[in-house]
Amino acid sequence: MMSARIVLLLATLLCVAAAVASSLEDHDHHGGHKSWRCARRCEDRPWHQRPRCLEQCREEEREKQQERSRHEADRRGEGSSGDEREREREQEKEKEKEKEKEKKDRRRPYVFDRRSFRRVVRSEQGSLRVLRPFHEVSKLLRGIRDYRVAVLEANPRSFVVPSHTDAHCIGYVVEGVGAVTTIENGERRSYTIKQGHVFVAPAGAITYLANTDGRRKLVIAKILHTISVPGEFQFFFGPGGRNPES
């Protein structure tokens, strides 16, 4: 009976020794100081707890190895996608420039360039561009919210179909020469216009014009005084025209 117990004890000690050897082999393969320290701690445990302790050490080492492999794969991925990251950085720089420009524009709400206008009509004969309502641009300009600005461009030898609008209009000829006709309360008035001239078209008056120059555009800047909804107006074209939203 005593010899059987001795044999069982020797078998257990051999299992513990094998587990320690396996742990040391894992340490040699991975070179992990933490796994070695873990195995050394297991030696201080009671003999019946050592196999489980060593198994936990191996599990921790496997998890750490997997984590190192993931980090290595991430680093390789960063190297292969360098061009894409460079493009992203360039896009971020462009966005920052746009934001900076918007901030500058907000500090100068009374300065407008060609990009500030929205094109509402465009054809082979010309175009009509309208500036957005002043009170939408800045609170500093809410005092002129009833006024809008538009620019009409007519190509050489072109004709602008009859139209009227629900806003009073003052037109200034910026460039070119032509002829304008207004019809108000059945009374017809025709004028020859050229650069520097100013003409008036009351709300509801039918207006049509022609570019009589064969080489240059006719450019007319318009100041519109809205009478219905502040800052809102609409053009109404005759047959063959197009009614823009403004």
UniProtKB/TrEMBL annotation:
SUPFAM superfamilies: RmlC-like cupins. InterPro entries: Cupin_1 (IPR006045), RmlC-like_jellyroll (IPR014710), RmlC_Cupin_sf (IPR011051), Seed_Storage-Functional (IPR050253). The lineage of its organism: Eukaryota, Viridiplantae, Streptophyta, Embryophyta, Tracheophyta. Pfam families: Cupin_1 (PF00190). Residues 1-23 form the signal peptide. PANTHER family: 63 KDA GLOBULIN-LIKE PROTEIN, OS03G0336100 PROTEIN-RELATED. The keyword Signal applies. Residues 110-244 form the Cupin type-1 domain. This is Globulin-1. It comes from Tripsacum dactyloides (Gama grass). Keywords: Signal. Residues 58-107 are annotated as: Disordered.
